[in-house]
Structure formats: C-alpha cells, structure tokens
Amino acid sequence: MANSNPKIRYTQLFINNEFVNSVSGKKFPTVNPATEKPIIEISEADKADVELAVSAAKKAFARGSEWRKMEPSQRGRLMIKLADLMKRDIEHLANLESLDNGKAYEDSVFDINCAIDTFHYYAGWADKIHGNTIPSDCGFFTMTRKEPVGVVGQIIPWNYPILMLAWKWGPALAAGCTIVLKPAEQTPLTALEMAALAKEAGFPAGVINVVPGYGPTAGAAIAQHNDINKVAFTGSTEVGHKIMEYAAKTNLKRVGLELGGKSPLVVFDDCDLDEAVEIAHNAIFANHGQNCCAGSRTYVQAGIYDAFVKKAADMAKARKVGNPFVAGTQQGPQVDKDMFEKVLRMIESGKKEGATCSAGGARFGTQGYFVQPTVFSNVSDNMTIAREEIFGPVQTILKFNTLDEVIDRANNTKYGLAAGCITKNIDQALTFAQAVEAGSVWINCYDAVVPQAPFGGFKQSGTGRELGEDSLKEYIEVKTISIKVQSKN
After folding, report:
1. pTM for this structure?
2. Tell me, what's the pLDDT at 26?
3. Cys-Cys with 164: which of 17, 149, 156, 175 at CB 3.0–4.6 Å?
4. Which residue numbers delimit the Aldehyde dehydrogenase domain (predicted)?
5. Which residues pair with 357 in a beta bridge?
6. Which CATH class is domain 13-259+461-478?
7. Which CATH class is domain 264-450?
C-alpha cells in the first residue's frame, strides 16, 4: 500500500555488517523531489570510510574466510533468501523508493519485482560457473578454473536505485566477490535498507558494504583504490571517462561502464499507427524520461509524420503528472533541482533553435521538480535536443524518408546504447537491426530488458555488459592450469 511517510530505519554507513557513523561525522540531506524538502540526513562517506569498507571486504575475501569457503550452492541460497526478504518488505521498499526518487509507487513496485527476478536469475548461476578441459600438446593435461576477481567497487545511479543495485550485486555475489557499493547521493535510502536485508539473509560480515556519499569524494576513492580489483559504474559518460582515468592511474583495475545514450526509435510507415505512438510514448516518458536507453530520438517516416505527431502530442497531454503516491499517477518529479533545471534549459533550447513545441514545454505546477510531458516536432539532427541526452520527459520527433537514410542518421552519434524500430516488414527490421550501432535493438517493442540477456553499449555508451551470462564474465578471472602427464591415452 502506498504511504508517503514510510519509516526510515537506516541513515548510517553499512560496513562489516554494522551500521556506523562516518569517520568525519558529516551528514548530507536527501530531498523529496515532489516537495523540494529534506527527508532526512544521511551519514556521508569519504575516503576514510571507503578505506574501512575496502578493508572489511578484503578480509571477507581472504583465503580461508567464511565467504571463500562457502559452497557455491549456499551462495545461491543466500541470494534467494535476500530475494524472499525483498518480497516480504516490498511495500516498504517501494514507499522508500518513491519518496526518495519521485517515481510513481506502482513503478517502484514493478522495479523491485524486476530486482527480485534478477537475484533469482543469478542465484541459479552460483554453482554453474564452469571451467573447461583443453586438449593440449606436449603431454599436458590442461584445464581452466574460473575465480572471482576479489573486492569490487560498485557505483550506481539514482534513476533505478534498487534495480541498479540488483544488477550489480547479482553477478558479483554469484561469482563470489565482495562488494563496496556507493549509491547515488540523491537516493541512498533503499540501498541502506537492502544492506540490512543482506545481513538478515545471512551474508557474512564484509561481503556487502554500502557507503553513501558524493562522487568526487566517496566515488573517486572507490575508483582509485588499489585494493579494489574491479569497478562497475552506471551513470554519465562524462564521469565514465574519469572512472577509466582513475583506474589507469592506479592499479589498472577492471572497469565496467554503462553510460549515456541518445537512442533512436524508428517508425516506418507500414506500422499500426496507434500501436507505434504508444510504444514511442512509453519509450521516452517511462520513468519521467530518466532512462539511459530511452528512445529519445523518434524518427518517423514522412508519409505518416503529421498524423503521428498529432497523436503523440495528444497522448503526452493526457499523461497524468503529480503525486507519486496517488493511484494512477504516471509521472512524478525529476529527481532533483539540477536535473529539473537542465530539462527546462533543454526545452528552451529546442524552442530557440526552431523546433515546434507540440505539447508541454514548461514546468508543471508550482512546487516540486515536475516537468510537463513535452513533445517537439520539426526537429533536425543538428539541434541540441536531438544531439544531447536530456534525461527528462521530452520527445523529439524527426522526419525521414528511406531506410538507408535513417540508418546513417541513427548512427550519427557518439552513443550506442539502444535502438528500436517499428515495422511489419521483416527484411526492413533485420536490415536495421544489423546496421544500427547499438548494444540492444528492439523490434516492435522497446526497453525489453530481462535478466537473461546482456545489456550494454557501443561507442561512448560504455564498456562491458550487465545482465545475462556476459555480466558474470565481468567479475571472473580465468586461470589456466596445466599438469604434466607421463603418457598419453
């Protein structure tokens, strides 16, 4: 049941299975984006706290530790237990998520169920990470052993707080790593609640550590730490560059990056128009547009362009914006003042550069970081709203004529996270899917992300993959072992 005033039980750092104050004693506020008012103050981690968390994680990973000696199947059972506790507390977690992030309560429930599915998926992998035997010359018996990389640092964003946590924890725990996680400073509440559930589930001390704080301090300390063997980051491309730089200048730790996007969704004129409008609407407006793989460039073939724009504008105008705890709300506020102001600046740039504002285009209401669902038509590729990631509820609709033309235009970006097309022509769909430079391609659907399939980007949308078997590889070292044998059989 939705409750806009949930009890907040945890506000401290979680290190070595205990909630503790930061070394400095500093705190920072987390703000309700629907009211612009502080919710509560959270202990602020910096370099000294990251040191303590890494020390705990390193001890938990040491040879002979409880975690290292634990049977792989038991790791899987702990993950199942964690998922069961999430299901038990789903209403409380969803209320915290909506309070801290601003997303509609029903969307928070959906996200948490997806996170539960992710833990179930990786729990099944815990005892199935197999090596190989390899036929080799010169009288050797050769095999490979797959081992966890060790202590991993994980830095997650604010747009899907619990879901991004699950994407990071799932493969790392299945592989047998230990974790130091920094949640986004805008949304620390559910990560701390998840830390408490991990302890209740029975994870040994030091396996999971949660250190809320700011990117330039706590985040940088994680990326630069010489005892962290892999860092996983989801966030902006700009910060992704810094993470890589920090890794290169320290211990050459592995780096996994899931970064920004400016993803094209191409609507061909043979589509069902009403279905295409709805798919394109959800592709950009879901989660208030705060989605790295949002379909933020909607290309519509010339023959149906005007009809599509009218229907898209009407759908945006009908979208229910408001209190995330009220049933039926489709769109809550942007996460904070910075993002709110950025989205409004981008909207103004669209108007100034000559795009037609067909719906929305301004603040919604007078309190909270709410933005009207906005639709721009007559957009050209060189406009700021067509080139830069807006990360808000702003649909940009561009016109195209031919398949070859739209492929070239779709690929003319530094990003390559996702893409989609809507068409009844299978040849057209397959040609587009093979030619577009994107890590995920969705045909007659959008944002079809499941735990079993890898997710990640081309170009400056990142390196490595989340989800699926491919994500496990990010947390595993492959060791080759060769044994001399006296005779061959």
Report:
1. 0.97
2. 98
3. 156
4. 20-481
5. 376
6. alpha beta
7. alpha beta
